[in-house]
Amino acid sequence: MSAALAEPPFVLDAARVLRYAVLRKEELRSGAVVNGVPLDAANLAGVVMAEALLDGVIFVLHCNEHWETLTASQHGDEPSAEREVASTYGAAFPGWTAYRALSEEEQREIQTTRAFLQQLAAEEF
Description:
The protein has helices at residues 78-89, 104-124, and strands at 11-12, 15-22, 32-34, 37-39, 46-52, 58-63, 69-75, 97-98. It is of the alpha+beta class. It has one domain (11-124). The strands form two sheets. Strands 1, 2, 5, 6, 7 and 8 form a six-stranded antiparallel β-sheet that branches. The longest helix has 21 residues, at 104-124. The protein is globular and about 45 Å long.
């Protein structure tokens, strides 16, 4: 992982990024286990706290250096997501960076995507 890891996209896996962190690679000795999925330290680069566009569920996305999700965990609220990340990564977790304010165009894209996902979900039932 490079120290110059860019911020993640504002939407990952149909969820709006709320916060993110670049993991301290030197402190991440053996990786982590999330929801029973072992993650190799060589593949881990960052974590994202995100809110699902469909229903507002909070997720933690465990990502590689390209902000591609390796695995995810669902949480009832932001504090439980924070506790999981701190517990899972310990000293390798430097703390959260709040995601920047979204541009008007990005906000419109979120609204459009949310409406589309809700329409798809309504058609399935």
